[in-house]
Amino acid sequence: MNELSRWLNKRRDFKHRRNFYSHFISSGDLCFDVGANCGNRTEIFLALGARVVAVEPQEFCVAKLRRRFSCNRRLTLVPLALGAVLGEAEIYLSAANTVSSMSPDWIEKVKASGRFSTVEWSSSTKISVTTLDALITAHGVPVFCKLDVEGSEEKILAGLSRPIQAVSFEFVPEIIQVALGCVARMEQLGSYEFNFSFEESMELHLPAWVKAAEISQLLAEMPDKSRFGDVYARVSKSQINF
Questions:
Q1: I need a surface site. Which of 41, 57, 190, 194 has the fewest CB within 10 A?
Q2: Cβ atoms 172, 106 nearer than 8 A
């Protein structure tokens, strides 16, 4: 593949991702990118005209985010982790920074399954932790919140006490109870409906949005245990806006 072909493919992929997120995000909306890493989703949200709060605790990624988006006034960078309560926590770092994690259980299970059997988490460090509620107090209520934090999604939602219009969170079959806990928490917060996508497809898998019980059953009984993806939760269309 030559350079022009690679460039065209990258452009098509970016357009596809932008079109997908445009179903949740409009120009001027506030978004939280939790687990921003090096900013692949942040870039898309900014391209849609959103104001973005990017939350990322890894120093390497924070430095890259600052370099990448230093001129964009619609970005606020929060170099912290999120959790159920304010405080400190341990993060286990990998050279593959996309899989650094605060969840020893997640690390153990994805290594045991073979998904990340060759990855090493060779060091750890203490990081400061804030909550979604604290972020909302500081920046406002987001229209969309993306959570991709390698096994800590349920704990983060425990630090949220009000509904958000739309939320996404990762599911991994090896630790599917985390995604099921996230579904249960969303149901506690408001009247939500759910869908999901596989891997990085940026395409909703279900032809229609479903309620919590159905998405939970689909996730728990998913036959192909090698597949992962993201669950999307949005305020039910039958409910008056919060």
A1: 190
A2: yes
The answer to whether the CB of 151 falls within 8 A of the CB of 106 is: yes
Please check the confidence at residue 242 and state whether its pLDDT lies above 50. Answer: no
The one-character DSSP state at 89 is: E
Per the domain annotation, does 224 fall within a domain?
A: yes
The Cα–Cα gap between 141 and 9 comes to 35
1 pLDDT exceeds 90?
no
- On whether the pTM is more than 0.90, the answer is yes
101 belongs to a structural domain:
no
The domain that contains 173 carries what CATH number? 3.40.50.150
- 219, containing H or E segment: helix 212-220
HEC readout, 23-55: CCCCCCCEEEEECCCCCHHHHHHHHCCCEEEEE
